[in-house]
Design goal:
mainly alpha; Serine Threonine Protein Phosphatase 5, Tetratricopeptide repeat; 3-stranded antiparallel beta sheet; ANK repeat; Ankyrin_rpt-contain_sf; repeat
């Protein structure tokens, strides 16, 4: 602080550690260097402050003083032995730091030190002169050069100080360096000369003019073939461009062999600079030249909505029907997709062929499809006024109307507009779906109401390639308002189509859809079966739909009905680990011992699929050891499966409830042997157990909950419930 002298003296008298570093590694001496506290720096040094202590960036107080231009403080540090050659952050010396900020007096102080190398480079290969040129300090540059600094050293990217003066537009520095003899056509690693850089960034044009006057080559190409003219256009530098065009005259080739396919005209069209475009057009015999990707200047201007450029290009004969090579999109496609209304209208009015309005891209999409997809009703109306066909289809056989109903964000007006212009509602896509299917699936009720008015009954009830109706899709996606609308209009007097009925779909979609169906068709539909003999209750069990399961049970759903795999809803819930559904079924007194076609009970399936919580819940409702020890077609008990899958809690509770540890499966393996990772390991374990001594040996682990100890015998693993009885 400005009033901190007395505080400092007090702390010094108390013998505090004056070399204490902060989180960023700075000492009090660094802080004096930042703020230029000359007197306080002497106090600290007199009391033992380390002059060349570095912070976390590797900078000493001298680096900091030079960076902030505190020449008196720098002189003090130097007089106390600070190292002027020490490299700090990114390899910079104090001389680099002073030139980086343009502080001439600090620079002069450092040059007076014996042994200071003016041409020392930092980690990027830059000398102090590079930084003086970049910052735009002709005074520092003159001082450095007069003391012998080299002006022809390139850094690691091949740039001279002249490059940095040019890129920042520092005319005085460019003037000095060129006057010293710096090579004006020297190129960096990317092939850029000082003129390339000045053309892009020197908006006043002074550096460009001076370089051109001193034999800088305006036709010099970088490694990609771009000349300073390309750079001037890319930088929107019309002043530099005028000078460059005047320098090259009328003989320059801006397109054709030997030059990049991306011409200055393409760049100007992309940037949207009307004035630059006007300067360039006389140098091009035609404006329909293309880049490597088949892009014309008109395509680029249309993509970005540069109306003034589009107007000028059209005046010079730009063709609206030309498409790029990537997406095969025309300027009209891009304008419609990007919502550039004025550009679109301009292109449509000046198209050489009025059929261009329906020109398809690589995916057979028209501009109208893209406009509708973007929710741009104004662009869509403009296209329709120009006779765009609303019934064209893309590769998926989707017309614009499909896109209009497919998204709820401001699509209702688009549907109305398209239908008013003759859009057909009965078109079918590659999946056999109509727009009614899609609007039902998306929940677009407004669109459905308009579409149904235009449809015959046979079209409204049509099946897609999966034999699904619009009612199926509305139910599946939980669009209850659409479900109610379809039912109210009595389109489906009976349930038709895929056996995976709307009722099955409604279970997935939600209880509201399910109630609407039951209210319309009656309670009998709750036991409809699909192609796999699954009822809606099976579907609720598989997907964990709790409210739907409750509703189905309340309305007479059969709890023990089996599907084609012999599974009841209970088995389906156990197999999928739907614990809450499982609890509902168990409390509804279902048959807990029922088996599927493979002989698996619910307990088998829970253990087989590693659903530990489901297995424990089932065990709470089982009080019969015979159920616990039931075997499937492979003669495996639930204990075999729990052991194999590492279900510790389930295994423990199975044994508590009487599961046999000696039960043999079809391979002659006990539950213990099922713990082995494969059959070979299980056989090895069996051999070892068979060769135990007659006196059984206790395992170390005891089940503290049940006071059960497991022991090994030649017959396998058995257990005793009272450890004290084992001798």
């Amino acid at each position: 602080s400005s009033q901190g002298v007395d505080c400092l003296n007090y702390l010094v008298e108390k013998q505090v550690n004056i070399n204490m570093q902060s989180f960023d590694g700075r000492t009090p001496l660094h802080m004096t260097a930042i703020h230029g506290r000359f007197t306080r720096s002497k106090t600290l040094i007199d009391k033992g402050a380390i002059v060349d202590c570095v912070d976390k960036n590797g900078c000493t107080p001298l680096h900091i003083a030079a960076r902030y231009g505190h020449d008196l403080l720098a002189n003090t540090l130097l007089s106390f032995g600070a190292d002027p050659l020490r490299k700090g952050y990114e390899g910079r010396t104090p001389l680099h730091m002073s030139c980086m900020s343009g502080y001439i007096e600090c620079c002069r102080k450092l040059l007076q030190i014996q042994g200071v190398d003016l041409n020392t480079t930092d980690d990027s290969g830059k000398t102090a002169l590079h930084y003086a040129a970049y910052i735009g300090s002709p005074e520092c540059m003159d001082l450095l050069v007069s003391n012998g600094a080299a002006y022809n050293i390139t850094d690691k990217v091949g740039r001279l100080p002249l490059h940095y003066a040019a890129v920042k537009g520092h005319y005085q520095c460019v003037f000095t360096l060129v006057g010293l003899g710096s090579a004006v056509n020297s190129c960096d690693v990317e092939g850029c000369s000082a003129l390339h850089l000045a053309s892009a960034y020197d908006l006043w044009g002074e550096c460009v003019d001076y370089l051109l006057q001193h034999k800088a080559d305006p036709k010099l190409q970088d490694l990609k073939g771009f000349t300073p003219i390309h750079y001037a256009v890319a930088g929107n530098n019309s002043t530099a461009l005028k000078s460059l065009l005047a320098a090259v005259g009328n003989n320059v080739a801006l397109y054709g062999p030997g030059v990049p396919q991306t011409t200055p005209l393409h760049i100007a069209a992309h940037k949207g600079n009307h004035d630059i475009l006007q300067l360039l057009l006389p140098y091009f015999h035609h404006v329909n030249i293309v880049t490597e990707d088949g892009l014309t200047p008109l395509l680029l201007s249309s993509r970005w909505g540069h109306t003034n450029c589009i107007q000028m290009l059209l005046r010079y004969g730009a063709q609206v029907a030309m498409c790029d090579d990537i997406h095969k999109m025309s300027p009209i496609h891009y304008s419609a997709q990007k919502r550039h209304l004025h550009s679109l209208a301009l292109l449509l009015d000046n198209a050489e062929d009025k059929n261009v309005v329906d020109l398809p891209d690589r995916l057979q999409r028209t501009a109208l499809m893209l406009a509708v997809s973007q929710g741009n009703n104004v662009c869509a109306k403009t296209l329709l006024k120009c006779n765009a066909d609303p019934n064209k289809v893309d590769v998926d056989k989707h017309s614009p109307l499909f896109r209009a109903v497919g998204n709820l964000k401001n699509r209702s007006n688009a549907v109305q507009i398209l239908i008013a212009h003759g859009a057909k509602v009965n078109l079918v896509d590659i999946h056999g779906k109509t727009v009614l299917h899609l609007s039902a699936a998306c929940g677009n009720l407004f669109a459905m109401k308009m579409i149904i008015k235009q449809m015959k009954l046979s079209e409204a009830t049509a099946l897609d390639n999966q034999d699904l109706t619009a009612l199926h899709w509305a139910c599946y996606n939980g669009k209850s308002a659409c479900v109610e609308f379809l039912l109210e209009n009595k389109l489906y007097e009976k349930i038709i189509g895929n056996p995976f009925s709307p009722v099955h779909c409604a279970v997935i979609g939600g209880e509201k859809c399910l109630r609407a169906l039951c209210d319309h068709y009656g309670r009998d539909i709750v036991n409809l079966k699909d192609a796999n003999n699954r009822t809606p209750l099976h579907i609720a069990a598989l997907h964990g739909k709790i409210e739907c399961a409750k509703y189905l049970l309340e309305n007479g759903a059969e709890l023990d009905c089996k599907d084609s795999n012999g599974r009841t809803p209970l088995l389906a819930a156990a197999q999928n680990g739907k614990t809450q559904i499982l609890d509902i079924f168990l409390n509804s007194k279902c048959d807990i011992a029922v088996c599927d076609n493979n002989g698996n009970t619910a307990l088998h399936l829970a253990c087989l699929k590693k659903h530990n919580h489901s297995a424990l819940l089932l065990l709470k409702h089982i009080d019969d050891a015979n159920v616990v020890n039931m075997v499937n077609n492979e003669r495996k008990t639930p204990l075999h499966l729990a052991a194999r899958n590492g279900l510790v809690s389930a295994t423990r509770h199975l044994i508590k409830q009487g599961a046999s540890v000696l039960a043999l499966d079809i391979n002659g393996m006990t539950p213990a042997l099922c713990c082995a990772p494969n059959t070979s390991v299980a056989q090895c374990l069996s051999i070892i157990l068979a060769n135990y001594t007659e006196s059984p040996q206790e395992f170390k682990e005891t089940d503290s909950d049940s006071n059960t100890t497991y022991i090994a015998t030649s017959e396998g693993l058995v257990y005793h419930t009272n450890c004290n009885d084992i001798s």
